[in-house]
Design brief:
Elements: H1 8-31, H2 33-36, H3 45-100
Helix pairs in contact: 1-3
Length: 101
């Protein structure tokens, strides 16, 4: 026999943990900002070009990295919405059965 079970409280807790993970990832990116755009070591063309390249790489990394926390928050919101939906449906079902007794 197949059985489908959904624990909406656990789903809400999981969504909260995903949000916390996204917050930690954002915090780590913020802490790493100085390393992602170092200043030129000197004013010569090679140092300036190297710093510019590292800054561009850092900007690309930041943009790519930010998609991770953003996606985690979207998953958390979706999971929370489903948990609420199942929770409401469970309550309505219980109320329907109570009306029969």
């Amino acid at each position: 026999m197949n059985k489908l079970a959904f624990d909406h409280e656990m789903a809400r807790e999981t969504a909260s943990r995903l949000d916390s993970l996204a917050d930690r990832l954002d915090g780590q990116l913020h802490d790493a900002q100085p390393a992602l755009g170092p200043a030129a070591a000197a004013l010569d063309p090679v140092s300036v070009a190297t710093a510019r390249t590292l800054h561009e790489v850092g900007a690309s990394f930041r943009e790519s990295y930010r998609t991770g926390p953003h996606e985690l928050r979207k998953i958390a919101a979706n999971l929370r919405a489903h948990a609420d939906s199942f929770g409401n449906a469970d309550g309505e079902t219980v109320d329907a059965f109570r009306a029969l007794t």
